[in-house]
Design a protein that fits this description.
The protein is α+β, with helices and mostly antiparallel strands. 29% of the residues lie in helices and 25% in strands. Strand 6 and strand 7 form a beta hairpin. Helix 1 runs antiparallel to helix 6 and helix 6 runs antiparallel to helix 7.
Length: 324
C-alpha cells in the first residue's frame, strides 16, 4: 500500500489530503477531483467574489426572491436548522456584526453603541425566508448579509470526502487549515487517524503543550479558537468570533472542539460551542447523543485552564514536564 499527498490553496487557507491505497494514479486523480470540488464550492459561497451565489443573494435578496442552486439552498436550510438548534449561538446572518467590528477584511475595531445597535438589528435567521418550493432566498429588510465563513469550509470538506468515497477511496484524511478535519477509514496498521490538539499558546517561541489526542474514523473534527485573529484596543484584547446573540466578541471559551460524522455540522457547532462556552457545555453536548466535544477557558498566555470534555481524553501536564 502506498500513500499520496496533495494540497491546494482555497477559501483563504490551505487544504491538504493524504490518501492510502494501491493505485497511485487513481489516488491522485481522486484527490484532485476532491480539491476541484472545494474550489467549485468556494465559487458559490465566497463573500468576496461578486459572481458567487451568496454575493448575489446579499446584493438582491432584500428587494426580491433570489433563486440559488439546490445544493446551496440545502446548505442554507442546514444553517437555519443549526441556528435554531444552538439557540442562535451559530448564525450565518452574522455579516453586519463582523463588518461593525472591522473583522470583514480588516484588522478589527470597537464599534460605538449606535453602530452596534444598527448591526444587531440586521442579524437573525428570522430575517431570512427560504422558499423550498422555488429554491429562493429573500430578506425581510435591507442590510441583512449572509456570511458562511463558519460553515463553508466544513461543507466543502464534507463534499470533498464524498468525492473520495465515490472514487473508491477508503483510507484518507483531509483538512482545511487544520481547523476542520475529516478522517475516512483509517491509516495502514492503525485503528484510527490520531489528531493532536494543543493548549492555548503560553509562549509563541516555545513548543505547544499537548492537550489531547483525538482518534478519528469516518468522523469530522472542527476546532475553533479566539486567540488566532484577535486585536487590541485600549489595552484590551478582543477575539474575532462574535456572539450573534449579544453582538459582542465571544468570551464563553478560548478553544472549542467538536467531533461528529458530518464536517458541515462540526464546523458550525465548534463555533457555537466557543460562544456557549464552559458554562453551557452540558446543555450543548446534549444536542447530539454521539457528540464528542471539548471546551477550554483560559486568558491568552495563562495557566491553569478550565477544561470540560466528553469523549475526549485530556492529557494533563505534570509539574516540570515538557511537551513532546
Amino acid at each position: 500500500m502506498t500513500s499520496v499527498a496533495v494540497a491546494r490553496q482555497a477559501m483563504a487557507t490551505r487544504f491538504e489530503i493524504v490518501l492510502h491505497g494501491e493505485n497511485v494514479v487513481a489516488l491522485r486523480a481522486a484527490a484532485e477531483e476532491a480539491l476541484d470540488e472545494i474550489e467549485r464550492i468556494e465559487s458559490q459561497l465566497s463573500l468576496y467574489r461578486p459572481t458567487s451565489e451568496i454575493a448575489r443573494v446579499n446584493a438582491l435578496a432584500a428587494h426580491q426572491p433570489v433563486r440559488v442552486a439546490p445544493g446551496v439552498f440545502r446548505l442554507l436550510e442546514r444553517a437555519q436548522h443549526l441556528s435554531t438548534e444552538t439557540g442562535g449561538a451559530f448564525d450565518i446572518t452574522i455579516g453586519p456584526l463582523m463588518r461593525a467590528w472591522g473583522l470583514m477584511g480588516g484588522s478589527g475595531r470597537v464599534p460605538d453603541a449606535t453602530m452596534l445597535a444598527e448591526a444587531r438589528a440586521k442579524v437573525g435567521m428570522h430575517l431570512v425566508h427560504l422558499d423550498a418550493g422555488n429554491f429562493t432566498v429573500q430578506f425581510a429588510r435591507d442590510g441583512v448579509m449572509l456570511d458562511l465563513g463558519a460553515i463553508g469550509k466544513g461543507y466543502a470538506i464534507e463534499r470533498a470526502a464524498e468525492c473520495l468515497r465515490e472514487a473508491g477511496v477508503t483510507n484518507a484524511i483531509l483538512h482545511g487549515g487544520t481547523s476542520t478535519i475529516f478522517a475516512l477509514g483509517h491509516p495502514p496498521n492503525l485503528e484510527a487517524w490520531n489528531v493532536a490538539l494543543d493548549y492555548p499558546p503560553e509562549n509563541p517561541d516555545e513548543p505547544p503543550e499537548l492537550l489531547a489526542v483525538v482518534p478519528l474514523r469516518d468522523e469530522a473534527l472542527s476546532v475553533s479558537a479566539v486567540w488566532g485573529k484577535s486585536f487590541q484596543s485600549d489595552n484590551k484584547t478582543y477575539g474575532h468570533v462574535i456572539d450573534p446573540r449579544t453582538g459582542q466578541p465571544a468570551t464563553g471559551a478560548s478553544l472549542a472542539a467538536v467531533v461528529i460524522p458530518a464536517a458541515t455540522d462540526t464546523d458550525a457547532l465548534s463555533t457555537a460551542l466557543l460562544t456557549v462556552g464552559v458554562e453551557g457545555f452540558d446543555r450543548f453536548v446534549a444536542l447530539r447523543p454521539a457528540m464528542r466535544a471539548l471546551a477550554l477557558t483560559a486568558a491568552e498566555g495563562t495557566r491553569p485552564c478550565h477544561v470540560r470534555a466528553t469523549g475526549i481524553e485530556i492529557r494533563k501536564m505534570q509539574a516540570g514536564q515538557k511537551p513532546r
